[in-house]
Give the backbone structure.
Amino acid sequence: MAILERSTPLKIPIWTLGILNVLDGMLTFFGLSLGYITEGNPLLSSLSPFAILTIKLFLSLCLFSLLLTPFIAIRARHWRYLLLSANILYSMILILHASWLILVAIA
């Protein structure tokens, strides 16, 4: 397992980013469908909750497709740091969204 991780250093960060995107899409879908939230992204605000979920799932599939390319074997540190930064930022946004939904749901 350690050999596989060393030969594909971007595999875990790409998986993580894809999963975070799916979770965010599901939270957004349920929040919009139940009327708890409004979409803050001006590019997505005119779309239905299902369309937003579909876009999020498609983008996650695009991320997961990178796992089938030589891209995951790139050893350049800047790619790892960029993906790590994206994962940290997305995790913070996801925690914020989940907190909002929980607070609105119990209120």
